[in-house]
Specification:
By secondary structure, the protein is an alpha+beta fold. It contains twelve helices and nine strands. The strands form three sheets. The chain has a five-stranded antiparallel β-sheet. Helix 3 runs parallel beside helix 8, helix 5 packs antiparallel against helix 6 and helix 9 runs antiparallel to helix 12.
């Protein structure tokens, strides 16, 4: 389950404060953990491969094979177990996953010292972004996400609280965005020593304020959300492993939840198919959306509504600049040029983007 150092252009990623980052002194209790599993073997090595607020990941090699070991930092045993129950049933609906291994007690979550761990088989594979997919591969990608959504609908129990929250979601108020722009502009202008990134940030912030002033009347009204259902929550290239041209496993289900499902389809496409210049490859988007609509049974109106809401979300979003200037975290800086250009291009090509998704 290889996880590269690169990070996807998505606002769902979260800042990892220094206190939560893996260190040489925060290795999991591998010996005690493996003794909870039958036939897992003796530990040979354990190397960090992923990190985040919701989990830490390790490649664990034993005398019996290789595993992906996940340390769930939030410690919510029931939430993690629910993820595992879902992913164990999804292969029956055509969704490839890396199912959690049961321990000797028949549980998929192992608690040691108050910490929650899960063991998964190590999946050999590679990550592929939209540039590496053919049109046919793009259509299969959309169909795969459609299978995720329809499969989750079959395997997940009803959650009235999550459904109510999703249906009452309010779109971003441009007034608060204007205040954030002013704050970020001040930070960018006074950053020392100033460099090309700060110059581009100032340009994009000023440009975005003008766009928002021009389009503020297009804010999605309450109740405009498309159909809501269970979603993966973080579907992007780093959470999908391929063997050759075929998906081998969808990983990282920590954000499994109830959301407008077509919004996930649009957000994922905006990550997979964005070009370095900030444009979407609409030919591949069109194929992807066709595959998604067919597999999910989603109509054109549902996709069109999702396009509008995600466009508005992107127009009001400055997650990379907030990481840099408010959190002093620059890991996402290399993505800023394309991500910030996408919001501008999408606004200009709004009708073409909506047509590509809605058909």
């Amino acid at each position: 389950m290889a996880v590269p150092a690169a990070m996807p252009a998505t606002p769902t990623l979260t800042f990892v404060p220094p206190a939560h980052r893996p260190t040489a002194h925060s290795r999991p209790p591998v010996g005690a953990l493996l003794r909870r599993y039958r036939g897992a073997g003796e530990p040979l090595s354990c190397e960090p491969v992923a990190q985040g607020l919701l989990n830490r990941g390790y490649r664990l090699a034993t005398t019996r094979g290789s595993y992906f070991l996940k340390h769930h930092l939030d410690g919510d045993h029931e939430a993690v177990a629910r993820q595992h129950r879902a992913t164990r049933r999804l292969p029956g609906h055509g969704v490839p996953v890396a199912e959690a291994v049961e321990n000797a007690a028949g549980e998929t979550v192992t608690v040691i010292g108050g910490h929650c761990f899960a063991l998964h088989p190590w999946i050999e594979g590679r990550h592929r972004d939209g540039a590496q997919l053919t049109r046919a591969g793009s259509e299969r990608l959309g169909a795969l996400l459609g299978l995720v959504h329809t499969g989750l609908e079959q395997v997940m129990e009803a959650d009235p609280v999550a459904l109510t929250h999703a249906l009452t979601y309010d779109s971003q108020d441009p007034a608060s965005t204007f205040a954030l722009i002013d704050e970020l502009l001040a930070l960018a202008r006074h950053n020392a020593p100033r460099n090309a990134f700060d110059e581009l940030a100032e340009h994009r912030l000023t440009e975005r304020r003008t766009l928002l002033e021009r389009h503020a009347h297009r804010r999605p009204p309450p109740g405009a959300e498309p159909a809501t259902g269970w979603v993966h929550g973080d579907f992007h290239p780093l959470n999908l492993l391929y063997r050759g041209a075929e998906p081998a496993a969808i990983v990282d289900w920590d954000r499994l939840g109830v959301q407008p499902r077509a919004e996930e389809a649009v957000r994922a496409a905006a990550i997979f198919f964005v070009r370095p210049t900030g444009e979407l490859d609409l030919t591949k988007v069109r194929a992807y959306a066709r595959g998604y609509r067919r597999a999910a049974g989603a109509g054109s109106a549902e996709l069109a509504a999702a396009v509008h809401r995600v466009w508005w979300e992107r127009l009001n979003d400055f997650w990379i600049l907030r990481w840099r200037y408010q959190l002093d975290d620059r890991r996402a800086d290399p993505q800023f040029a394309a991500v910030s250009a996408l919001a501008v291009w999408w606004t200009r090509e709004y009708e073409a983007v909506r047509e590509a998704f809605a058909g």
